[in-house]
């Protein structure tokens, strides 16, 4: 198989795997042991642009940086492309979660595609729970099928 195809598949596979990592981390770490950092994302008790929850950006960036460094400095090709996949997922997470869903920057407010409406709706359902217990919809790019079906149905009406 061509090297560039293998590298692309590594990036794609890592990107897809990161959705599972994000779901697991969100459900069991952010709504568990590290709720102290994530709480202000659900409970707005401040007027600051930044949240304690933003520390997760740094926590999630570390594996990508380590993989990129291993690939760049030690010639570990697979690690480099895994680092690219983690970084691309991180960028997608920032654009979808922080910019599109939470509107930290007021752009994409009127995006009306069924996919975007579904992930926005699922995230709103996630935020209806202000405590760490009884959460739902912990994914970011892939949410329960019912939200996709619901928004597709409203498109046909």
Automatic annotation (TrEMBL):
MF terms in GO: beta-carotene 3-hydroxylase activity; iron ion binding
Gene Ontology BP terms: carotene metabolic process; xanthophyll biosynthetic process
Matches recorded under InterPro entries: BETA-OHASE-like, Fatty_acid_hydroxylase
Keyword flag Kinase: no
Family membership noted in the UniProt record: Belongs to the sterol desaturase family.
PANTHER family from the UniProt entry: BETA-CAROTENE 3-HYDROXYLASE 1, CHLOROPLASTIC (PTHR31899:SF9)
Protein name: Beta-carotene hydroxylase
Lineage of the species this protein comes from: Bacteria, Pseudomonadati, Bacteroidota, Sphingobacteriia, Sphingobacteriales
